[in-house]
Amino acid sequence: MFIKRRTSRVQHRRQVIELQAKVVSPRIVWFSVLKSCRKMVRFVVILAFLGGTVWGVKYGIRRGLLENEEFRLQAIELTPNPAIDERRLVQVAGIDLNGSLFDCDVAVIESKLQALPEIAYAKVRREFPGTLIVDAAAREPRAWISSPSHGIPARDPQQGLVVNRSGFAFHCPPALLDKAAGLPVLQLGEGGEMPVAGKQVVHPEFDRLMRLYQVACTEIEGADQWIDTLRQSRTWSLELVSHDGTTASFGLGDHERQMGDLRSALEHARTQDQQIASIELIPERNIPVILRGEGTPRAILIDEPAPVATPDRRSRDLQNLLNR
């Protein structure tokens, strides 16, 4: 018996055709609508619950805190300072005196106070139940700024500018006008940026005059009330004018030595009951000095002076210059 072998395999693919029939009837549509309505109602209920919860929390906060008489703003404690008082604080910060302590935004009030050029520091905090504490410090005027080319007058309460030790410009607060009335004026020439309240003064002459002023305050006692005006009179020299009419010329450098010479000359003139009209301090020796206010010479009987030690050269030069 012979068996016939298969030499190849034949794969038969069956194609299955699936028929899906969708049946639409009024009853099926009705149930679909009911199902969608139930989902919608459930969503609305959840949304209403959340909205009611939020409203309840806000209502409770408003009734329990914001509208609570215990937390109403009852007092403002402001650190005494010459730059701002309680009335101006309320205006600048926009504080509602009839509102709650929670209405006072500490960060906003601090930013508004620190934006005032005359305020150097401001810190605000709330002390429950009803006190707002404001700690503020004013900038200390160091000198007046004058710039004729920029229309800035000297020592003007309205348009004038003062600077602190770091050169920050601001309008002098009314409470400090009496104290600042005798401060020196730094007179600036043309060039540089226009001095503006709330910014650092950027001017080449200002830096030179400020350095000379600082040296004067170090070398001469009461220089801040003795000096009237500081200006750059020439390209190579600075000029100091005092309240009593003394004019002193300085170079652009070597101020310590020159200011020491000025102090010595002033002290010597004071002992001789004389007044210096002008003095040129740039030379290291043979300093030119012009005196003024000398009275009529008088003859005075004096005893024979006792021998004294020979004075040093510097004292001798000053003596010769002041007595010529």
Automatic annotation (TrEMBL):
TM annotation in the entry: 40-61
Compartment(s) of residence: Membrane
Signal sequence residues: none
Membrane found in the keyword field: yes
Domain annotation POTRA: ranges: 71-139
Heme is among the record's keywords: no
Keyword terms: Cell cycle, Cell division, Cell membrane, Membrane, Transmembrane, Transmembrane helix
Listed PANTHER family: CELL DIVISION PROTEIN FTSQ (PTHR35851)
Official protein name in the record: FtsQ-type POTRA domain-containing protein
